[in-house]
Amino acid sequence: MLERYAHNPIISPDPDNRLYCKKVYNCTIAKHEGEYFMFVRGVGDDWISRIFLAKSRDGLSFKINPKPVIAPEHDWERCGCEDPRITYLSGKYWLTYTAYDGTTARSAMASSRNLYDWEKHNLMFPKLEHPQRENLPTDWSKSAAIFPEKINGQYFLLFGDDHIWSATTNDILDWHFNPMPVISAREGFFDAAFVEMGPSPIKTEKGWLVLYHGIDQFSDNRTYCLGAALLSIDNPLKVIWRCSKPLLEPRESYETSGLSDLVQGGYSTLRKLSDSDIAQMSQKNTLPKSVFCCGVIAEDGLLKIYYAAADTRICMATIDLESVFQS
């Protein structure tokens, strides 16, 4: 459904920077005063995730600042600051990210007026007690994405993996969880086993467009694709349309072979794998395949989708907004 940029990937790990020499992926993006500001997740030789700023004039050629803008400071994020999503609200940019302590992944938030200097606001759901799936802590809360405007006098967000949940607030900081899922897995579709929230919703004439991720099956060769749903403008908890086919699925070599977070054992396994091991797993179709989007720019009637390929590098693809609803 999407047209990939001919010169993908647009950002790859830098072997000369120890903080993102392994992986550069799962980015978000904003356009400010004619420039594209991308916030990328980088993983280096210590296997700790940090968030870096990359800038571009054309949205294609990015230069990464070698020092992170968001890095672990607190105990609850000591093993990584992951997967940012950005929204502009009330005169500030709000960056949500996943704070990982080695056991539990929790949504956290930071804000900035200039996209360079960030103030952290701690965890978004510090008292969450909501069992989701077997073996997960009850305060697990990944992938938060805030709507870009108030709806019926409140701020809304969607978050979660396994299901996509909602939360509301009056002040952006004190979020109240809604235990009814908005989007869940669907048997017989590309998202039959799992769904996870993508970038902040996009307002369209038809409703709130939500991009999300779906997994077809829990197996060694599972596939992580990009899907779409439409929510009511006045009631963002109501799904009025959902794609039957993925907008984007891993197909190119740079999308099917890499240091996939989805391998059994995660980083513990990846630390032990050589490039040859990865190549062999890909050839044998035992390596999970993934495309993952936390960032999108809507302009000129197009969605410019910035996505991670194989959890290793960043790529870009475009799609006409109307074409989304034909999937």
Overview of this structure, please?
The protein contains four helices and 21 strands. The chain is mainly beta and 327 residues long. It has a single domain, classed as Tachylectin-2, Chain A (5 Propeller). Strands 1, 14, 15, 16, 17, 18, 19, 20 and 21 form a nine-stranded mixed sheet that branches. Strands 2-3-4-5 form a four-stranded antiparallel sheet, with no helix packed on it. The longest helix has 9 residues, at 275-283. The model has no long low-confidence stretch (mean pLDDT 94).
The number of E-state strands comes to: 21
Average the pLDDT over all residues and give the rounded result: 94
The global form is: globular
- DSSP helix fraction: under 10%
Count of individual helical segments: 4
* Cα-to-Cα separation, first versus last residue: 7 Å
What low-confidence regions span 5 or more consecutive residues with pLDDT below 50? none
For the record, what is the CATH homologous superfamily label?
A: Glycosyl hydrolase domain, family 43
- Bin the strand percentage: 35-45%
Biggest sheet statistics: 9 strands, mixed
Q: What is the CATH level 1 assignment?
A: Mainly Beta
The total tally of domains equals 1
The CATH topology comes to Tachylectin-2, Chain A
| SSE run | EEEEEEEEEEEEEEEEEEHHHEEEH
Q: What's the gyration radius in Å?
A: 18 Å
Broad structural category: mainly beta
Secondary-structure arrangement, i.e. CATH architecture: 5 Propeller
Oligomer: single chain
